[in-house]
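Worked problem 6 (solution included).
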Amino acid sequence: MKRNTFLASLIALSVSPMLSFSQFKNAFMRNDKGFKVGSGEGRIHGHMKLQGVNSNILDVKISGIDTEGNLAIFEQTSLSQGKGTPLHIHHSQDEIFHVLEGFYYFQVGEEKMSLSSGDCIFLPRNVPHAWTQVSENGKMTVTVQPAGKLENFFLTMATLDHEPTDAEIKKIFSDHDMDVVGPPLNIN
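Solution. The predicted structure is:
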């Protein structure tokens, strides 16, 4: 019995420094300096031209890489009047949209609302939501907390070389912890 206790203690002691080291390593890997991302610039990926649900330009302003996955902020330049996302659910992220220019139509749960320049909307995780661009052009800041896989979702949408089918879109959403649960909003 004493031998088993000794072996268990020895194993625990040998693993303990590794656990401490990983926390120590993360503390030193996090960027401890501020940085600026200029107007019209995207951090890390540059401008990403999205395919699929819309053909907008997306700039990563704050990457999940910068925040150890705690937060991501994107700026979207909207070029797809009458288009938007299908009704979908994020299982692990809350989203905040701040309209900088233009007009948009949003659905959150059963509620539908119009947003224009200066308006902000909170989209809680696990609540179906969608949006559609109403104006010819527009721009929004999108904040996601935690960052999750949304940045990789945008990278995937930017690397498509064709207009994806509905089945492909559902799979891409699913691969990035989201589920499509309905069609895009109809603004007519």
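Discussion: The domain at 47-184 is CATH 2.60.120.10 (Jelly Rolls).
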